[in-house]
Amino acid sequence: MLRREVRARLQIDDARQRDYIYTETERRLIVDGHGRTREEHVTVTESYPGLPGKPRWERRLSEDGHMVPAAELAKHDRERQEEAEAYLKKRARMTKAELDDERRDHEKHKQEQSAIIDDAFRVFVFTMTGRERVGGVETIALTIEPRRDVKTETRQGGWAKHFRGKAWISESDYELARLDMEAIDTLSLGLGVLARLHEGSTVSFERRRMDDGVWLPARAAVVASARVLLLKHLRRNTVTEYSGYRRFGVATSATYDVPATR
Predict the structure, then answer these.
(1) 45 lies in a domain?
(2) Residue 60 belongs to a domain
(3) Residue 255 falls within a domain, yes or no?
(4) How many angstroms separate the CA atoms of 228 and 221, rounded?
(5) Which of 11, 86, 167, 177 sits in a 20 to 30 Å window from 131, CA-based?
(6) Considering the chain, what is the average pLDDT of its residues?
């Protein structure tokens, strides 16, 4: 029952955030093979739903403590407004066949995301270990172990075979509250010898239940050890926090409001 209820509710973060505006604070730390910090960056961005078939619109507010000048923000806002207006004009001229193609593309994207989750449920064996309180929520704790011999349909499903970890499921509504995963061997990221994710790299995701009952991403952390070009061994620590969620007030399939310049 637990497995069925969780699968029925589970979505990729992008799908959960699709109808929301939020603030994204990303902290990136790069450490060399001797443990010395080589780079440290903090970026604060406002993220808005994108036009149909397009990525989200990212409105960068600051970089390493330096605010983006108001004139630069205004320029980007105007460019985005022009892009939205051009799309609306184009859409007004679209035939029924073209509109149907657009809807099919959207459905295809949803199906691809669902296929990734289906692969995860094929690959992983979940074992309940008890109940724990996470982020103020009562959860069911599960260990996650991969099955190496399972056939998968997606690239991400193939990657899943290289990870094990732990998940925490909200006991009241079967939503994923937290997920911690660790690479159990070296993983190729599709770049051949150029880059590999090393054993011991970790990823962690946390979600929070909003006032309206919707669970949305709150934090993502990646500690990745990789060798680049077979020469440099670097560890990249990235923590991304999501805050200030508010629903986007206008359906992006019909029109688009550009935020006021700060």
Answers:
(1) yes
(2) yes
(3) no
(4) 21
(5) 11
(6) 87
Nearest to 182 by CA among 201, 204, 156: 201
Token pair of 114 as six digits: 């669902």
What's the farthest any 2 CA atoms get from each other in the chain? 60
Is 125 domain-assigned? yes
Q: Which residues pair with 188 in a beta bridge?
A: 196
Q: Domain containing 28: what range? A: 2-247
pLDDT in tens, 106-121: 899 999 999 999 999 9
Number of domains in the chain: 1
Strand 37-48 with 66-67, pairing = unpaired
Residues 135-148 pLDDT 10s: 899 999 999 999 99
- Decide if pLDDT at 94 tops 90: yes
Residues comprising the chain, all counted: 262
**pTM for this prediction:** 0.84
Mark 119-135 as b/e (b = at least 16 C-beta within 10 Å): bbeebbebeeeeeeeee
C-alpha distances (whole Å) from 87 to each of 58, 73, 104, 139, 256 are 18, 21, 18, 44, 9
Distances from the Cα of 38 to the Cαs of 16, 93, 234, 235, in angstroms?
A: 34, 52, 9, 10
